[in-house]
Amino acid sequence: MKNDQMASQFELLADLLEIQGANPFRIRAYRNAARTIFSEAESLADLVSSGGDLTQLAGIGKDLARQLVELVQTGQLASLEELRKQVPSGVLDMLRIPGVGPRKVSVFFNELGLKSLADLKAACEAGQVSKLKGFGKKTEESILQNIAAAAAQAQRISIADARIAAEAIVEDLRGLPEVSQCEVAGSCRRRRETCGDLDVLAVSSDSTAAMDRLAAHPLVESVLLRGETKQRVRLKSGVELDLRVVPEESFGAALQYFTGSKEHNVVVRHRAKELGLKVNEYGVFRGETQIAGGTEEGVYAAVGLPWIPPELRENRREFEWADAGELPELLTLKDIRGDLHMHTTASDGAGTIEEMALAARARGLSYIAITDHSKRVSMANGLDADRLRRHWQEIRRVRESIEGIEILCGIECDILEDATMDLPDDVLAEADWVIAVLHYGLRQPREQIMLRLLNAIRNPHVDIIGHCTGRMIGRREGADVQFTELLKAAADHQVMLEINAHPSRLDLDDIHAAAAKDYGIPIVISTDSHSVNGFEVMEYGVDQARRAGLTRHDVANTRSLKEFRKLLKG
Fold first, then answer.
1. Is 54 left (phi over 0), alpha (psi -120 to 50) or beta?
2. How far is CA 242 from CA 88, 186, 234, 391, in A?
3. What is the pLDDT of residue 238?
4. Are residues 515 and 555 in the same domain?
5. Confidence class of residue 570 from pLDDT cuts 50, 70 and 90?
6. What percent of the chain has pLDDT over 90?
7. Residue 570 covered by a domain
8. Are residues 391 and 514 in the same domain?
9. Percent of the chain beyond pLDDT 70?
């Protein structure tokens, strides 16, 4: 179990305790522990395995250390499982509503007895929420406006959560001697930003053994359906997972079929029909004779196509590329050489400049940019001009002391609501790398949003627009951006665009990243790391780029630093 997974378990435990109205000091202890766990560079699972002393970690006492050992050894916390039984899952769904945290949910649950989003909606419509102490009509109206989005998000999970769960189950099933093949399918394999459910396919000499193994997995809450070759379970996260046990001769066909997308498969079936063939999850058939099906490559070859990477299977341009022999050689994680968006203890990060640089070097990167917040983000201890210049001096000092990685002096500078930059030009001119971003005023009219973005793009010191819509998937809609105008301006003024790799952002989305490629705009994939463990999310940004059809030539930070510098405005 990775540190971030353990941290999320402690965060969830703290949320449940706060909803129950538990001792604030106990809640704070769990939250502090979660931060410590997430920011720790060393694998705590490895530390437990080697018998290390967890109490040496900040904020980890004997009781928390015991629970960490339990989590590493069993994959779950007994105390968390007990709390899950006491607090209905529908209560946790309320946390998805913007502006609603555990304290408010505690009031809804304990004072009004609300147990689901439907209950909360009915209470708001009846005016019950606005009568609560500390609440008002505006809060009630805001909850009503956002509850539909929360309900929709409650049915989907992020690609990060989906991958962690699905891949853990696949790895477990592969450990069975009866299982010869096992893969994740569905939208998770295509690396969609969110997944509504999960699909796993297996070839097993004994389907009973595979299904028994799945039913006993620590992530599984209950078995919903079980037949001879298909089993549906509900995971403790609430998402459902289907396991299908298929014959070896049909595995490739089933993998292609259940990976989707539906739109992609419609075209595959149509091409098969034109060739006098039939394609389904059992194979490719000419009449009653199966001519392919054991591998995906065989299925695609039977209908006159090369194998198409799962990330491209959305019926956009993949068939056009395939027919022309121009399927792109998609970007891989190994192609990334630099990370150009991260935070340190100078603003809201958990790692020092040196710690972030060493962690990046350990991950094989050859250059980074330290880009702490500008002063507008006051809650993140953003930097004014004087603090920023002192911060850059410290970066230059560290740069001289560390070999094997280059460190750029950067800044994540807010584009203010009045369309000016948060720092003066003479300060930005001193930076090696300037990211311009929208953090506030995301609900402004499109005209003002575009004025802000275009002013930033025209600024001679801005190198890139970071997470350009400001969206938080499932929690906050992005700004109303006119992308044609944005892309044309970025291309004209040599400004790059970011794919923010954090699974809660993935901004640009795949559609607009593909459009940026058409404009010849270099993309930078960045982690927005706030700790030494934050670099792990780079793979999600790479997946997003692959969905956009990007190659290493389309992504600026696949270049050496010398070549990368040639792309900068100055």
1. alpha
2. 24, 10, 9, 51
3. 81
4. yes
5. low
6. 81
7. no
8. yes
9. 98
Closest CA to 416 of 447, 453, 379: 453
Q: What is the mean pLDDT of residues 303-327?
A: 96
Cβ burial, residue 181 (10 Å; 0-12/13-18/19+): middle
In whole angstroms, give the CA distance from residue 83 to residue 165: 21
Distance CA 388, CA 401 (A): 20
In this structure, the number of other CB atoms found within 10 A of the CB of residue 100 comes to: 19
Find where tokens 């929420």 sit.
129
434-480 pLDDT, tens digit each: 999 999 999 999 999 999 999 999 999 999 999 999 999 987 889 99
Q: Does 261 sit behind a cis peptide bond, omega within 30 degrees of 0 on the bond before it?
A: yes
The pLDDT of 70-83, averaged and rounded, is 91
pLDDT recorded at residue 265: 94
> 3-class SS at 111?
helix
Contact 272, 313 (CB under 8 A): no
7 contacts 43 by C-beta, under 8 angstroms:
no
Q: What is the model's pLDDT at position 41? A: 66
125 with 36, same domain: the answer is yes
Burial annotation 470-499 (CB, 10 A radius, 16+ → b, else e):
bbbbbebbbbebeeeebbebbbeeebbbbb
pLDDT at 404 over 70: yes
Q: In DSSP terms, which residues pair with 234 in a beta bridge?
A: 222, 240
Specify which residues 233 forms β-bridges with: 223, 241
Residues 388 and 482 in one domain: yes
CA distance 51 to 65: 12
Do residue 489 and residue 395 come from a single domain?
yes
Under 8 Å between Cβ of 465 and 453: yes
Residue keyed to tokens 């970071």: 466
Residue 132: both structure tokens together:
């609560």
User: Full-prediction pTM beyond 0.70?
Assistant: yes
Model confidence at 149, pLDDT cuts 50, 70, 90, reads low
3-state DSSP helix/strand/coil % of the chain, to nearest 5: 50, 15, 35
pLDDT, tens digit, 9 for 90 and up, residues 541-555: 999 999 999 999 999
pLDDT of residue 154 exceeding 70: no
Q: Are residues 216 and 135 in the same domain?
A: no
Q: What domain count does the chain have? A: 4
Where in the sequence is the domain holding 473, given as residue range(s)? 333-565
CB 130 within 8 A of CB 139: yes
Residue 385 sits in the same domain as residue 532: yes
Whether residue 327 is preceded by a cis peptide bond, meaning omega within 30 degrees of 0, is no
pLDDT average, residue stretch 302-309: 98
- Residue 505 near residue 467, CB atoms below 8 Å: yes
Look at residue 379 in the predicted model and tell me its pLDDT: 87
Beta strands per DSSP E along 159-313: 179-185, 194-195, 198-204, 220-226, 230-235, 240-245, 278-280, 283-286, 289-292
Question: How far is residue 535's CA from residue 356's CA, in Å, rounded to a whole number?
Answer: 9
Q: Are 405 and 367 in contact (CB under 8 A)?
A: yes
